[in-house]
Amino acid sequence: MELKQINDLREIQFKIEELTHAYVQCIDDNRLEEWPEFFTGDCLYQIISRENHERDFPASIIYCDSKGMLKDRVTAHRQANIFEAHVYRHIVSSIRIAGYENDTYTVHSNYAVFQTRVNGYSEVYNVGQYIDKIIFIEDEPKFKEKKVVYDTLVIPTLLVTPI
């Protein structure tokens, strides 16, 4: 492999990692109105149990198949849902390009989300894997598909904030 190709791959990997880190920082900073902008217009965002994902069952906690649905999710979060105030902190690791086909990168990474409530106590909220399909639009990576495949058996509170 030529040095230029290696450098191109490193740049792609860097941009994908930056997309992932900016995505979780947006959620952690409670800038949810910006969250849909990480996605393409005809995207898929799904939060699904590992068991359902492995068995190819479609049942999900959250399923949005367009940027418009993501925006509606944020509006519901801000105006309609009633929930205890909390703060998320994400840790993301092992961001790895697992494949490339038809101008789309398949990217896998692990995540852990900690939640701190108003009482000041922090706990592990959710743990799992992101399985992403990422495309580049004018040299900027966007999520075409983001599957949040969670390992956590019990989600202790209403899941209203994206993971």
TrEMBL record:
| UniProt-listed InterPro entries | NTF2-like_dom_sf, Rng_hydr_dOase-bsu
Q: Name one GO molecular function term.
A: dioxygenase activity
A Pfam match: Ring_hydroxyl_B
Recorded hits in CDD domains, A to Z, give:
ring_hydroxylating_dioxygenases_beta
**Keywords, sorted A to Z:** Dioxygenase, Oxidoreductase
The chain's coiled-coil residues are none
**Family, as annotated:** Belongs to the bacterial ring-hydroxylating dioxygenase beta subunit family.
The name under which this protein is listed is Anthranilate 1,2-dioxygenase
